[in-house]
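In response to reviewer comment 3 from the previous cycle, which asked for concrete evidence that the modeling workflow produces usable outputs, we include below a single protein chain processed end to end. The sequence was submitted unchanged, and the resulting structure tokens are shown without manual editing.
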Amino acid sequence: MKPYYQEDGITIYHGDVRNIQPRCDVVVTDPPYNVGMAYSDHDDRMDERKYLQWLRDIFSHACGDWSRALVWFWQGIRVFNGEARACLPEGFEIHHAAAWFKREFAGDLFKGAHPGFAWEPIIWAARGKPEYHGPRGGHDARDCLVEDRSSRHDKGALEHPCPKPQRTVTRVLSWVSSDTDTILDPFCGSGTTLVAAKNLGRMAIGIDVSERYCEIAARRCSQGVLAL
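The workflow returned the following structure tokens.
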């Protein structure tokens, strides 16, 4: 398949990873949570069993036989209920669970039956012996990352309904990848993983079924290296 965008070590495909299967060393992604978000190109209200099988299928194709690590943002309750293991590709085991704490007020996510959502787990699964490449001290080496949902200055990221902070994603990439690795995000959305990889000097591949998000991601990646 011809790339939608390709420049400076960053490649973007408009499509489904199951039809592309690019090779990579590490998969880092933020999949749909199946909570009813209004995505124009994806059903975010699947039956839960169907959703978990779909996500496992996506992860399996993304990791292939070559990726050594799979990292994804998700919901805390799913981790505690055991759904995370149901999504693992064959040969992978959960190695660590970090957390992203949303520093700003989270009352807009209050659903009535429990407190507002203020944090999300970052699940790190590995095939074989895990490799940690990050710093050994300081805030960036801690597994609880505190950051606003997205920088108000990063307008491109805010064109997606569920952006992740670029700084948080950059820290996660520094944990699980070296500067010779290729990173894959099969749900690249507005391209935050790709921008983070570019800032770290890593090669990265992004895939999304939405052409609109591919366009946003390509625009952000073409702007050059951005300061954190």
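The helical segments are 48-63, 76-81, 83-86, 166-176, 192-200, 211-221. We consider this sufficient to address the reviewer's concern, and the full set will be provided in the supplementary archive.
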